[in-house]
Amino acid sequence: MTTNKKTTSKASLAPTPTGPATAAEARPAADGQRIKQKRLERGWSVRHLAAHSGLAISTISKIENNKMVPTVEVFSKLLAALQTNPGDWFFEADAENAKPFVKLVRAGSQVGIEHPAVHRDILLGGAEHGNIVIMRQVYRPHAPELQQMGHAGNELIYVIRGGLEISIRGRKKLVLNPGDSLHFSSSLPHRYEAAGDEECEALMVWWKQD
Known about the structure:
By secondary structure, the chain is an alpha+beta fold. Helices cover 24% and strands 30% of the residues. The chain has five helices and twelve strands. The protein has helices spanning 23-41, 46-53, 57-64, 72-81, 86-91, and strands spanning 7-9, 14-15, 68-69, 111-114, 118-126, 132-139, 154-161, 163-168, 174-176, 181-185, 190-195, 200-207.
C-alpha cells in the first residue's frame, strides 16, 4: 500500500486547495463548472437547485465556484436533482480532450472518493478514454450498506484481495474471491459490499457503447 497522500473528498465538504491545479485537482474543478452549466441550461437558479436537491444554497455555490469538493452523497444528490445519470456524467463528449494524448498518473496521486463503506480511486475516466471509467475500490467490512443503483452501460468487477458480495436485483447474491470477475449490464440495479471480516480490494471497469 502506498503511503503517499491521496486527493480525497472527506466525509464532509473539504475546501479546494488554491494555487496551480494538479492533474488530481482538475476533475473536481471541472465537475463544479459542469454542475453550474447544467443548472443554467435548465434555467434554474441556485435556490431552485437547492430546493430540488435538499442541499444548502451556500454549499451549491461553493461547489460551483470550486471552493468545495462534494462527497459522493452530495454529488449524487446534485446529479439526481439535475436528472443526470452518473454514468453519462463521465461519458459526455469533450472535443478538446478527444485529441491524441499520453497521460501519466503517479501512484498516490489519483483522485480519491471517500465513503464510509468504500474508498474509490479513479484511475481513468472521461470521453478522452473512449467512454470508459476504471476505478480501484476498497470495500470495508461491516460498513453501512450501499444503495442498489443502476446506470447506463456495462460493468466488470475483478477481485484483487478479500471477498466481495454482489447483489443484483432479481438475481441470487454472488460472492467473488481473489481472481474472480463478473461482467453484467449495469442498468440492472446492483450493490457491492465486503464479504466477511476483511477489506476487499477490486478493480471496476465501467463503459458505455456509442
